[in-house]
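Problem statement: downstream parser choked on a complex file, so we are re-checking the raw output for the flavin-adenine dinucleotide run. The parser issue turned out to be on our end (a line-ending mismatch), but while we're here, posting the original submission so the record is complete.
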Amino acid sequence: IAVRTGGHAYSGTSSTSSNNIQLDLSGAYNDWDYDAQTGLLRLGISYSLLEFNTRLRQAGLFMPTGQCYNVHVGGHVQT
Ligand SMILES: Cc1cc2nc3c(=O)[nH]c(=O)nc-3n(C[C@H](O)[C@H](O)[C@H](O)COP(=O)(O)OP(=O)(O)OC[C@H]3O[C@@H](n4cnc5c(N)ncnc54)[C@H](O)[C@@H]3O)c2cc1C
């Protein structure tokens, strides 16, 4: 079983051959909960970096990330 969010793993670890199972989580976990009092942001792993950075900017927040906008939070954080 291979787990995938953005699908950009350099080593192919989120891909499978034909008789296996790929869990595509790119649309599964989109929670977003920001507490302005504590500064704590909890979010699901399905955001692309473009979506993530767009929402951060709308909230006046910033976090350094990689440059590929279609890498997703799940794969980026795992790696
Ligand atoms: C053009 C380009 C530019 C890049 N630039 C940078 C950069 O500037 N800085 C940087 O740090 N990296 C950079 N990267 C590397 C990128 O961050 C990693 O390849 C990242 O792992 C890709 O994440 P993904 O979600 O697209 O990949 P995926 O292929 O979906 O996942 C990557 C790995 O994480 C696992 N995984 C995925 N989702 C989950 C999950 N929800 N739970 C547990 N495991 C999971 C997968 O099984 C796989 O092993 C770049 C990649 C590309 C293609």
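For whoever reads this later: The helical segments are 49-58, 73-78.
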